[in-house]
Amino acid sequence: GNSVTQMEGPVTLSEEAFLTINCTYTATGYPSLFWYVQYPGEGLQLLLKATKADDKGSNKGFEATYRKETTSFHLEKGSVQVSDSAVYFCALSREGGSYIPTFGRGTSLIVHP
Amino acid sequence: DAGITQSPRYKITETGRQVTLMCHQTWSHSYMFWYRQDLGHGLRLIYYSAAADITDKGEVPDGYVVSRSKTENFPLTLESATRSQTSVYFCASYRTSGDNTGELFFGEGSRLTVL
Asked: Cβ contact (<8 Å) for B101 and A93?
């Protein structure tokens, strides 16, 4: 079946540091890939997505590239801010059929001033 | 305001009591979901619904009941609450996009404590 594996957290960084959160997936066919972000006390919201191999999703300075050869969708940001402190979830959804997304366990990011 | 509204936001109950968590969307998204979020487990799917009167089990359905008589509402009922059901519950709806994918929209969550 489909699965998503994320790096364990928490990830603790100083402001302006470079961020990478690793995500790998197992899926049949050609899934779409997503990163969702959950700020403290809130529900999840979509951060970015990519729908086919080699696509790059980007938003708010975050980027992730759909790498089919390594089945990965790593999240990166060149310079993090304190306001980026949140939990980040990698997810995939199957092409066509039912829209049931599969989530990773989430990675907590803590950014210190 | 458009979006997903969950109620109550916070609930404390006792073991054995029935609890219903409400979820309302102001769009007409076909798919709706209930997740629970627990430390060490991330998000786990409890139930989902593809349309009114169509529901199906997710990963952890035991002890929960859902209904969907109207497209906009998707209540989740714990028929006899247990301490293991202490969690934060999220409702979500799914909006499809033109690129054969879509986006989940989440409510703010309902924090349930079972004593």
From this structure: yes
